[in-house]
Design goal:
single chain; alpha/beta; TIM Barrel; six-stranded parallel β-sheet; three-stranded parallel β-sheet; 13 helices; 15 strands; 40% helix; globular
Length: 390
């Protein structure tokens, strides 16, 4: 039985740990040369495509500017289509479309006229606030041009793509005021404040840390010039001791949002993203791609209630469309960088049996890593662990 291989991209940009412009063009040329048909996720869930073994779905997460400047022209050059999952709160609404590679090829602009682009880590440092628009992302004019081309279908990747603290456990302390922990702290990035475990806002029940503890640790850091005149190890020891003393003196129960507040918040973000795409692009939005692939039974239930017909994960596995799905859960694999790895992974995921075997192998490997980490044993680096995933 055939399975639909779904490839997950983030950026197509040189100089970062993701697919370069040359690598992406090589992959698209290989697909065209071997007569692969790239299909839109929405066409597949609508039953418009029957799998015959040479179909592939290309997807892009987040809505980075380079998707418009680099990826979109190369897709059109080789007759490929893609589904773009946009973080709808990050797109500016009052800006014109910027020039892209197609404008350069047609002689309208020079390469030097293309907008400056950044890898995702640097982009998050340029605009560390999460709930604001960012020039590092595509704007609505660019998304509209891609949607109207027929080569791209824009769907949801949530409205803000942020995370929240999930428990009071202290993992570390902040050492950089430009650290993207601001996503979880409502822009509080003071040096010295605790770093707690974080999970996607689309699944977590949010933990609210003690503001007084944060104030005290920040003041201690400034007063004693921790991480400046004091070594990082000693600074962390002093902060951890101060946190422990504070919690011993002020014994209060950890504060979380209520279950009703969690449901209202997640439903509201799903609705806001869906409505933004439908209003700006005048088209249905009924597919949501989970940020970081994180979801839960609650988020699946709420997605169904809001009107999504499919959810997209970030884990490999077979995609064989059921006859009457309640809500599809579509699996993906990250694009390998090298062409040989790309073609091998693509062909393996075109078979439902091979895709299931690959999924089992990954689950077994991940379980082994967790057990060894809990036992304090060293782990070899995971395959693909150097790639950034958002």
């Amino acid at each position: 039985m055939h399975s639909l291989p779904v490839i997950a991209y983030h950026q197509v940009i040189d100089g970062v740990r993701d697919v370069s412009i040359v690598q992406f063009e090589q992959q698209m040329q290989w697909l065209a040369d071997h007569e692969y048909q790239s299909i839109l996720i929405r066409d597949w869930i609508d039953g418009k495509v029957k799998l015959a073994g040479r179909e592939v779905a290309l997807t892009f997460d987040d809505g980075w500017l380079d998707n418009w400047v680099h990826a979109f022209p190369i897709l059109r050059k080789y007759g490929m289509s893609a589904t773009m999952f946009a973080v709808t709160g990050r797109q500016a609404d009052d800006q014109p479309a910027r020039p892209n590679l197609e404008d350069v090829w047609n002689g309208r602009y020079q390469t030097s006229d293309l907008p400056q682009m950044h890898g995702m880590n640097e982009a998050h440092r340029i605009v560390p606030a999460r709930e604001v628009t960012s020039p590092c992302y595509m704007n609505w004019a660019e998304l509209r041009a891609m949607q109207e081309s027929g080569s791209v279908d824009v769907q949801s990747h949530s409205h803000w793509h942020r995370d929240y603290w999930s428990s009071p456990r202290i993992l570390d302390f902040n050492t950089d005021p430009r650290n993207p922990i601001g996503w979880a702290t409502d822009e509080d990035t003071r040096v010295g404040i605790p770093i707690h475990p974080r999970r996607s806002a689309m699944r977590v029940r949010r933990y609210f840390p003690d503001a007084n503890l944060h104030d005290q640790l920040s003041e201690l850091t400034q007063r004693d010039r921790l991480f400046n005149d004091v070594s990082p190890d000693e600074s962390r020891q002093r902060l951890r001791a101060a946190a422990s003393a504070f919690r011993s003196k002020h014994r209060t129960a950890p504060r979380y949002e209520t279950a009703d507040q969690q449901q209202t918040r997640i439903r509201g973000e799903m609705t806001a993203s869906k409505q933004a795409i439908e209003a700006h692009l005048n088209k249905p939005c009924d597919v949501i791609c989970w940020p970081w692939g994180e979801h839960s039974r609650l988020s699946i239930q709420l997605a169904r209630q809001v009107g999504y017909r499919a959810t997209v994960l970030f884990s490999p596995g077979p995609n064989v469309r059921p006859a009457a799905p309640d809500i599809l859960r579509i699996r993906r694999f990250p694009s390998p960088l090298g062409l040989d790895d790309f073609t091998e992974t693509l062909q393996r995921n075109a078979s439902s049996r091979a895709a299931r075997t690959a999924r089992f192998t990954r689950l077994k490997r991940d379980l082994t890593f967790k057990v060894r980490r809990r036992l304090g044993l060293p782990n070899p680096p995971k395959p693909g662990a150097t790639r950034a995933s958002v």
